[in-house]
Amino acid sequence: MLGVARDADAKAIRDAFRTLALKYHPDRNKEPDAEARFKEIAEAYAVLSDPKKRADYDAGGFAGLSGMSSEDLFGGINFDDLLRGSGFDFGHFDFGGGGLFDGFFGRRRRGPAPGRDIELDIVVPLSRVISGGEETIDVPRPARCGACEGSGAKQGTQQRECATCKGSGSEVKQRSEGGVSIRHISTCAACSGRGRTIDEPCPECAGSGSVQKQERLTVKVPIGVDDATVLRIPGHGMPSEAQGGPPGDLRVTVFSTPDPRFKRAGADLWRAEHISIPEAVLGTQREVPTLDGNVEVRIPAGSEPDSVLRLRGKGLPRFGGGGHGDLLVRLLLDIPSQFTAEERKLYQRLLELQAKPGGA
User: Fold this and answer.
1) CATH 2.60.260.20 spans which residues of the chain?
2) Which of 108, 169, 180, 241 is the most buried (most CB within 10 A)?
3) Where are the domain boundaries for CATH 1.10.287.110 in the chain?
4) How many percent of the chain have pLDDT more than 70?
């Protein structure tokens, strides 16, 4: 899975993992099978990086690892340290204990459930993709009501235990059928499962305990960031509905602003350049815009329609490092639909020359 030799050392295994993890991270790669591939890559690293697991695998394949829990497989591996310094701000992705890997590999989160994630899109110009840097965003999210300190009860009053469910948040109904006792547990309708009721709601938050606020945050945009990359900012999502639960995360999806000069394809840029029939036949020079100014491009004689000229290194920085992409110039042949009298004569003369033996 990592594509390394059987006798590969620890550095070769680690480098292979970093390369493939960057390629298939599901926040970067939107292919349908990216998440599954990413999981397989992490599992392969967990086996190959541990001498005992590797020996068990060499001896019996995956059967030699049967019965191993996710904690057994991934325990002791700090993915955050493995991937740090790769040119990508992995602090936004929460690779360490908890977060992304917990969801993939079935680790259980201890304590109350977290709040839901907040998702939003930002659009950045190509100049930000080139240089990276910070973008300021305003995030609407609930915050604890200051007037009632999150209780939902009017100042000077308190919540009280729900008389219907006695604070459990659930209603239990029991009946017997044919000597079998059946219990039906449902959410308490009187308190909506909260276990507490409010006689006088807080006027500031209408009893919800939270108010909507705009939170201003700074997002670090990595150099060369791909379109649809998701930056994860832990702890800035929705508050947890469970008592004492942590908030969810903020997931910011980054897109680049369309540029009228180019069409983006990852780190490469495409540009359509229109040329006339004489220019295609005889060749010409053309000034073409790039990200760092105009350059002279030679269009060779005899260029075919839809030919592509490659300007190496004139594209965007590659996400995660590795140089720059290219600027690809597609030649579009303009065939005139109207002619002057002189142009018609010239085309007619060319047609006659081509019709003669030995003509073009």
Assistant:
1) 263-355
2) 169
3) 1-107
4) 83
Does 2.60.40.10 match the CATH number of domain 263-355? Answer: no
Burial of 277 (0-12, 13-18, 19+ CB in 10 A): middle
Model pLDDT, residue 72: 66
Pairing of strands 250-256, 118-124: parallel
Residue type, 79: F
- β-pairing, 196-197 with 160-161? antiparallel
Residue 59 near residue 42 (C-beta atoms within 8 A): no
pLDDT in tens, 135-180: 999 998 887 788 888 888 998 898 888 988 888 888 888 877 766 7
Q: Which two tokens stand for residue 221?
A: 């945009």
Higher pLDDT, 177 or 96: 177
**For residue 110, pLDDT beyond 60:** no
- The yes/no answer on whether domain 1-107 falls in CATH 1.20.1250.20 is no
Locate 299 and state its tokens: 């269009």
